[in-house]
Amino acid sequence: MAFVTGLRCRECGRTYPTEPLNVCDFCFGPLEVAYDYDAIARIISRDRITSGPLSMWRYQDLLPVDGTDAVDINAGFTPLVKSKNLGKLLGLDNLYIKNDSVNPSYSFKDRVVSVAATKALEFGFETLACASTGNLACSVAAHAARAGMKAVVFIPADLEAGKVIGAAIYAPTVVAIKGSYDEVNRLCSEVGDNWNWAFVNINMRAFYAEGSKTLGYEVAEQLNWRAPQHAVVPSASGSMYTKIYKGYKELESLGLLDAPVTTKMHLTQAAGCAPIVDGFESEDDIIKPVKPNTVAKSLAIGNPADGIYAIRTLRESGGSAYAVPEESVTEGIKLLAETEGIFTETAGGVVISGLRYLASSGAIKRDELTVAYITGNGLKTQEAVEDVVHPLLIDPSISSFEQALNGQKAGGN
Amino acid sequence: MGRRRAETRGPMAKLRYRFTFPTDLVTQPITYRLGKDFDLVTNIRRADVRENMGWLVLEIEGTDQEIERGVSWVSSLGVRVDPVSGDVIEG
């Protein structure tokens, strides 16, 4: 059963029916889903949630879909790992890693796309589309395959072929656009506005974005129904960051948490593309678009749609925003792998390097309950850490092996 | 899979953009000239203009070709031109 009452403009507050719209016709502000929370409160309970499936769809009462037939490739309910070694290294006794890199298409995008695909079918769309340089394309193509929908994925023509294999394997139509990043962006936006397709982050964006709330619900449930004191989150458009906080706050307002939400929401970006961090630090709350130049490709959004809302969440939660130096991104990837056995992509490297800074600066105290969100898998960006491969080259003899091993010990490795 | 441009009448179109002005262009009458020098109707819906920068979201009505010509001119001046919904290419 759906509890959606319609869509509402985040700027002027005008309301719209539940349709595939993303922009207010009056002020061109973004639309978001509005719910009947009183009705939700009457039926929802911890027992109702925990008796649901072991996936993000256990929170269906809080998602904007009508039926029970979700387009589900089993996204969500990913591990929340209590840190052993990384926490010790950083001086944090109560650190958890939300490992969302193990979703079916290896990123958190499965959460948002699962909602968008489900809603697209409800609206009667036959084609699921997106513009992407990686994770989103994989997830859209996978969900379309599962739903029996056509998939169209737009990519910049100069994108390396290897980046889209993870999407192409599901047999979408891949459209490679010749032109600058800005030209590709504008064309995709126009196609999204004017073609009768479900473009997940354009005309389906209001619904799509809601999927990220499950990253908040899940962590709170896995922490035995409490929100953490600190959340460290990567940010590109700013959407996921704001929705995680919204997830905590919804559970609080529905009486499902044991204590009020006091989470400080820490936002991390790579220095080569940090328009939200810059906007927050400038204190004028204006997002100035930038041209991305970062190794963290999955965070390379120069004109973030939800940037201003992310700044509001930063201020409301008392969190901080940190631009991680580019050279620290791969250090973060390696640090997480070497300490916790979790291989993340560059966005995760940004989070871990940001976490290290927050711990060393005293923003996060030793005993405070902290969750670091890892949203994508390292297998996606192996080229970023190619320098880790330096095998011991030996002849096929025990003596050569022993010599190499002793040499390594002598070298202090 | 057909095209669905509800606002199109004949060759005319209405497209929505966000213009971001750097400091040195804040005082220039660029939107005025866009409507005067090109065969376009501009319709500003939201804006925030300050000393050091400004942005506005607007709708531009005209033929596809004229909109493209006008937007290219705006862009060539150093104004950043984006879709109103922000960047849509995600990682």
Strand order of the biggest β-sheet of chain B:
2-3-1-4
CATH superfamily heading of chain B: ACT domain
The amount of helix of chain B comes to 10-25%
Summed up, the domain count of chain B is 1
Query: What's the pLDDT, averaged over the residues of chain A?
Result: 95
Q: Helical region count of chain B?
A: 2
- Give the name of the CATH architecture of the largest domain in chain A: 3-Layer(aba) Sandwich
How many helices of chain A in DSSP terms? Answer: 15
| Approximate strand percentage of chain B | 35-45%
Total domains of chain A, how many?
2
Helix content range of the residues of chain A, please? Answer: 25-40%
CATH class of the largest domain in chain A: Alpha Beta
Largest interface: A-B, 57 and 30 residues
Reading side by side through the largest sheet of chain A, how are the strands ordered?
Answer: 4-5-13-10-11-12
SSE run of chain B? EHEEHEE
Please give a quick description of this structure:
In chain A, 38% of the residues lie in helices and 15% in strands.
Description:
The complex is a heterodimer of chains A (413) and B (91). By secondary structure, chain A is α/β, with parallel strands linked by helices. Helix content of chain A is 38%, strand content 15%. Chain A has a 6-stranded mixed beta sheet, sandwiched between helices. In chain A, helix 9 packs across helix 10 and helix 11 crosses helix 12. Chain B has one domain (12-77): ACT domain (Alpha-Beta Plaits). Chain B is built from 2 helices and 5 strands. Chain B has helices at 30-37, 64-76; strands spanning 12-21, 41-49, 54-63, 80-83, 89-90. A 4-stranded antiparallel beta sheet of chain B has the order 2-3-1-4. Classes of the chains: A alpha/beta (413), B alpha+beta (91). Chain A binds chain B through residues 11, 22-23, 26-30, 109, 126-127, 130-136, 150, 154, 156, 181-182, 184-186, 188-190, 192-197, 199, 201-202, 205, 236-237, 284, 286, 288-289, 297-307, 347, and chain B through 1-5, 15-16, 18, 20, 45-46, 48, 50, 53, 55, 57, 59, 75, 80-91. Strand 6 of chain A pairs parallel with strand 5 (89-90) of chain B, so a sheet runs across the interface.
